Amino acid sequence: MKKLNLLYIILLGIITTNCGDTKKGENSIFTIDNSVFKPFYTSNDVLKVGVLNPASKTIDSIVYYINDNKIATSKGNATLDFPLKNQKLGYQNIKALVFFGGDSSEATSRVELVSDVEPKLLKYTVINTYPHDIKSFTEGLEFYKDTLYESTGQKGSSYVRKYDYKTGKIYKQIDLDPAYFGEGITILNNKIYQLTWQEKTGFIYDVNTFKLEKKFTYDKEIEGWGMTNDGKSIFHTDGTEKIWTLNPSTQKLESNINVYSGQSKIKSINELEFVEGKIYTNVWLKDAIAIINPTNGGVEGVLDLSKLRKELKSPTAEALNGIAYNPKTKTIFVTGKNWDKMFEIKVSE
Questions:
Q1: Which residues sit opposite 212 in a β-bridge?
Q2: What is the C-alpha separation between 55 and 158, in angstroms, rounded?
Q3: I want to staple 144 with a disulfide (CB 3.0 to 4.6 A). Which of 88, 187, 266, 288 is the partner?
């Protein structure tokens, strides 16, 4: 328990969720029987769902839905046993569509699915230290074909550049219009994808020429924060506990996961990096990285990087932000907003 508490302190972006939501359907004919619900569920649990019928109607059948996905149809007022094994973490919205006497009525409720994984406190070794532009308000950091790319924020000084991380020599750079606050980047299929913070606008550039190929608008009312990709899909954050999946061809947000450590959501998920099947993420204002299962959102490990701040000389150094995995060396590069150094580290358990 001591170890778990330490991880919570490190990530401190945690907001404890309410115990067992008991949201009822908005009709007076049927309700979900939430008296049997537990305060929290994990993926090993089986959710038992039944319908209360206080008016003693003759029920013909019930169609059950979880998160708007039809999962079962029962005859009469039969209960449902639903294994939660493959569900994403977060609220599971339950709906029962009840058919009776030629009519129908809905009953709704929800339960919360949390993580049953105890995150591991990981270790790291600093392999190298490199100079970092102290003026760079780092929002995104990524290797592509052995070259490091970086994006920065702040209106009037946001840019995307590629450069030699050993010397700081800039190979190419594009500056954003002062109207935009630049955010995270990711590179996929020779295209650079970039987000902006509150302008709900993204940009796509040719990775070789930095020529702007497309400007797109977010299809949901969210902010733009960090980005990464797994070679097929793009993931990006919005400053909450959510990590969204974006279709690189259409730029549409298709789904999301919620990040949980135990029974708590981890808010302010920021810069992202896909590392050997896991998502590494900065937590805003915390000198730590959370390692996330990309399938369900559970935090599996925590990397405390608070000691790196002691190596900085920059008086204006802000939050740790910037994670870039170099697959060639199998090392991770980390830096922060207005940091004067970038660190190459090796992670171990």
A1: 205
A2: 63
A3: 187
Pairing of strands 299-304, 120-131: parallel
As a whole number of angstroms, the distance between CA 274 and CA 251 comes to 19
Residue with tokens 């009525």: 105
Token pair 């590069």 in the structure block, residue: 333
DSSP 247-286: -TTT--EEEEEE-EETTEEE--EEEEEEETTEEEEEETT-
DSSP string covering 153-210, please?
-STTS-EEEEE-TTT--EEEEEEPPTT--EEEEEEETTEEEEEESSS-EEEEEETTT-
10-residue mean pLDDT series, the chain (349 residues): 53 46 55 94 95 93 94 91 94 95 93 95 96 96 96 96 95 97 97 97 97 96 97 96 96 95 94 96 94 96 94 92 95 97 94
Alpha-carbon span 18 to 123, nearest angstrom: 33
For residues 101 and 292, give the distance between their C-alpha atoms in angstroms, rounded to a whole number.
48
- Cβ count within 10 A of residue 192: 26
Query: CB–CB of 138/320 below 8 Å?
Result: no
Report the pLDDT value the prediction gives residue 138, as an integer from 0 to 100. 97
| pLDDT at 19 (0 to 100) | 43
CB-neighbour burial class of residue 146 (10 A; exposed 0-12, middle 13-18, buried 19+): exposed
SS3 assignment, position 48: strand
Tokens 């206080």 identify what position? 54
- Count of CB atoms situated within 10 Å of the CB of 81: 9
The residues near 34 (Cβ < 8 Å, ≥ 6 apart) are: 20, 22, 24, 109
Domains in the chain with CATH codes: 19-113 (2.70.50.50), 120-348 (2.130.10.10)
* Structure token pair of residue 147: 């070259």
